[in-house]
Amino acid sequence: MEPLILGLESTCDETGAALVRGTELLADVVASSMDEHARFGGIVPEVASRAHLEAFVPTVEEALSRAGVGLADVDGIAVASGPGLVGSLTVGVAAAKALSLALGRPLYGVNHVIGHAAVDELVHGPMPERTMALVVSGGHTSLLLVNDIATDVVELGHTLDDAAGEAFDKVGRLLHLPYPGGPHVDRLAREGDPQAIPFPRALTSAKAMQTHAYDFSFSGLKTAVARWIEAREEAGQDIPVADVAASFAAAVADVLVDKTIAACRAHDVDTLVIGGGFSANSQLRELATERCEQAGIDVRIPPIRYCTDNGAMIAALGSAVARRGVAPSRLDIGVDSSMPL
Ligand code: KG4
Ligand code: ZN
């Protein structure tokens, strides 16, 4: 029988515990401290760390109980050891080490960003040998060439400044929407004209493509939106909020999808996985579905509950790593807030 892997996630504001055997998800429990951060308009690292400390044991106990197994049945412990907030990571990794030591089971420290791609295996089954993965959330925007999810993932590009979700949250603030603004901007955008305002598409000029073909940049776009709003306000004109949201959202989706499809073509890949909380974005979903269909690319987007941070993604990656026979991590591993792939 394949090993039973307990996956633990604590990179940001979600405490996650999940049990996976092979590519079968047996339980997935998530506790979030987002409500505690909302009134600050952003994640407060110390509040997040303390919330992990309090939520950790109940979350693991609930996952074991839902899967109908005990701690003694666990064959291996996978934990996200980066990237993320140092204090949050430390709580999860310390707890994972304690479990590994107490149970005498191997520890697998894994990369959270790769986990966002790996989770798709629980939904659509094992990935084809070469798969492209676009991981987009409030914290990351990365394009990954997945040769083997457990052992060979190459980062082709990433954002040079803001993540896509972060840019949406900032534009949400400019439009006076509640935090996090992403889903609100998405909703407004559906009522507006995406071609109303020609916002810039960063790093798409021929010159930028030479050095940053698969990199992204969204902070200039956010500034362009801010300037456009300011100019209208100074002129005493109304702000057509739905058109601003739609034009901004179109600029983000356009760049994400264009560069991803170009990467698929350049690397001769015909399967694309989109993961991370931003995959909920309707403009990205629509454009990716439409353009991938034209390009003959099979696009896989897991249901949204698997795309936001959770233990299932870490257990899925840990399970792949254990199945490949990769050596476990040492018990003195640290955490890495900016962990490379
Ligand atoms: O993965 P996630 O839940 O948390 C991390 O950032 O790790 O991603 C949440 C981010 C937030 O920035 C949120 O505003 C954004 O994704 N987001 C959206 C949508 N749903 C979530 N942005 C635009 N449209 C959405 N529908
Ligand atoms: Zn994440």
From TrEMBL:
- Reaction(s) catalysed (UniProt annotation): L-threonylcarbamoyladenylate + adenosine(37) in tRNA = N(6)-L-threonylcarbamoyladenosine(37) in tRNA + AMP + H(+)
Q: Membrane-spanning residues where?
A: none
- Enzyme class, broadest EC rank: transferase
- Output the Gene Ontology cellular-component terms: cytoplasm
Alphabetically sorted, this entry's keywords are:
Acyltransferase, Cytoplasm, Iron, Metal-binding, Transferase, tRNA processing
Enumerate the cofactors the protein uses: Fe(2+)
Q: How is the cofactor bound?
A: Binds 1 Fe(2+) ion per subunit.
List, in alphabetical order, the Gene Ontology terms for molecular function in this entry: iron ion binding; tRNA N(6)-L-threonylcarbamoyladenine synthase activity
UniProt record, GO biological process: tRNA threonylcarbamoyladenosine modification
Q: Where in the cell is the protein located? A: Cytoplasm
Q: What is its EC number?
A: 2.3.1.234
Q: Extract the InterPro entries matched here.
A: ATPase_NBD, Gcp-like_dom, KAE1/TsaD, Peptidase_M22_CS, TsaD
Residue positions binding Fe cation: 112, 116, 309
Q: Which residues does the annotation say bind substrate?
A: 135-139, 169, 182, 186, 281
Gcp-like domain residues are 24-315
Q: What does the record give as the function of this protein?
A: Required for the formation of a threonylcarbamoyl group on adenosine at position 37 (t(6)A37) in tRNAs that read codons beginning with adenine. Is involved in the transfer of the threonylcarbamoyl moiety of threonylcarbamoyl-AMP (TC-AMP) to the N6 group of A37, together with TsaE and TsaB. TsaD likely plays a direct catalytic role in this reaction.
The cross-references to HAMAP family, in alphabetical order and at most eight, read: TsaD
Q: What family classification does the UniProt entry report for this protein?
A: Belongs to the KAE1 / TsaD family.
Instruction: Fetch the PANTHER family from UniProt.
Output: TRNA N6-ADENOSINE THREONYLCARBAMOYLTRANSFERASE, TRNA N6-ADENOSINE THREONYLCARBAMOYLTRANSFERASE, MITOCHONDRIAL
What protein name is recorded for this chain? tRNA N6-adenosine threonylcarbamoyltransferase
Native organism is: Demequina capsici
